[in-house]
Design brief:
Radius of gyration: 24 Å
Structural class: mainly alpha
Distance between the termini: 79 Å
Largest sheet: none
Order of helices and strands: HHHHHH
Helix content: over 70%
Number of helices: 6
Shape: elongated
């Protein structure tokens, strides 16, 4: 066996250190991207919430944009806002940016509000929601609800 010089060991340890640094930078960039995605979604939720708040103050239902077509229902507008908030929460949780305990609390509230038969807001908006979130809500619904919704 040949004896390896001290210079070679120093070069090897330097390359290993450099490789470790590059891996660390890559992980940091990945985390920053997740945080940026979550921040963009949060900004959109804030924008939509402000829009619905303006409609509610004017006595207008979101999605129909009418004061005469349907009777004004501020709770429906709040339900739309809640759905955006829950979708944002789901994104943050799935990106690893939300604590498990907080997510479980939010999940319970979301399922209490949207996993009931015939929830108009959920039925109206589910095609525009994240498929995994829709599947999560559907999984909490009674089986006969899903059957009725698929028929109609």
């Amino acid at each position: 066996m040949k004896k390896v010089s001290l210079d070679t060991w120093i070069q090897l340890s330097g390359m290993i250190g450099l490789l470790g640094g590059l891996i660390f930078v890559g992980l940091e960039m990945q985390q920053n991207q997740r945080i940026a995605l979550a921040a963009q979604q949060t900004s959109r939720v804030e924008l939509f919430s402000n829009m619905v708040n303006s409609l509610t103050e004017s006595g207008v239902n979101y999605r129909t944009f009418s004061t005469t077509e349907d009777e004004f229902d501020p709770q429906r507008n709040v339900a739309h806002q809640l759905l955006w908030i829950f979708e944002n929460d789901y994104l943050q949780y799935s990106l690893g940016l939300m604590d498990e305990g907080i997510w479980q609390s939010k999940l319970r509230v979301m399922l209490e509000n949207f996993s009931r038969c015939g929830n108009e807001v959920f039925l109206q908006r589910k095609s525009s929601l994240d498929e995994d979130l829709v599947a999560l809500i559907n999984a909490a619904m009674p089986d006969d609800c899903l059957y009725k919704e698929n028929l109609g």
